[in-house]
Amino acid sequence: MTTETNSDELPGLAALHALIAVESETVRLADDIAASVRSFLDGLRVVAAQATGGQGISLLLLQVSQIALTGARLGVQRDFAPREEFQPDDGPDPDLDELRMQLAALLGNVDTYSYVFDPYQPELLEGQLSDDLTSVVADLEVGVRHYEAGDVDEALWWWQFSYVSSWGALAGAAQKALLSVVAHDRLDVDLASTQELEQIEAASAALDSAENR
């Protein structure tokens, strides 16, 4: 004799399936965010240690633009909440002084810049790209440590919270500053070089005229 099973006999089954689906989607999102964050952290360290000159600026712009996109993904998600009221200990903060100094050396005289943290309460601030990028790294690494400890909810909550409260604005300001450096490099015409070229062209024209007489 076959016994038929229906939803009345298992009233919590649909809810359980829905919960499992939400948990699975949360884990997949955490995996994606963690991969993007690790890529940024590794890439930034490589650029800071090995890149030089204009190449370094362009590569920094690429790295910051990618992590800004990751932050935007977090910004449009539902509000994540940690499982516990208090944030669990994620261990000692890493020493980021070497990274900060490498970035400062790479950026040179474009390290100091001005920006507006909140455009709806405009106040012009001055900062160092090396300091701000290092602060972004520090925020992101907290989430990585939670993720590696298996606490996906805490990691997502921290990445999202710190994005809207801190590192999102810093990354956006840094992205704009780096883009400005690249734009000036590509678009600005050096007046001295232009004048020198005009002098050379004028001298050549004069010589040609003398030879044709």
Explained architecture:
The protein is mainly α and 213 residues long. The chain has 6 helices and 2 strands, in the order H-H-H-E-E-H-H-H. It has a two-stranded antiparallel sheet with strand order 1-2. A hairpin with a 7-residue loop joins strand 1 (112-116) and strand 2. The longest helix is centred in the first third of the chain and has 38 residues, at 13-50.
Task: Provide a concise account of the structure shown.
About 70% of the residues lie in helices and about 5% in strands. It is mainly alpha-helical. Strand 1 (about 110-115) and strand 2 form a beta hairpin.
How much of the sequence lies in strands comes to under 5%
The termini sit apart by: 118 Å
Sequence stretches where pLDDT stays below 50 over 5 or more residues:
1-5, 15-19
Main sheet attributes: strand count, strand direction, barrel closure: 2 strands, antiparallel
Shape descriptor reads globular
* Secondary-structure element series: HHHEEHHH
Mean pLDDT across all residues, rounded? 82
- Strand arrangement in the largest pleated sheet: 1-2
Helix content: 55-70%
What is the CA-based Rg, rounded? 26 Å
What does the secondary structure layout of this molecule look like, with pairings?
Elements: H1 13-50, H2 53-75, H3 97-107, E1 112-116, E2 124-128, H4 129-148, H5 152-187, H6 191-211
Antiparallel strand pairs: 1-2
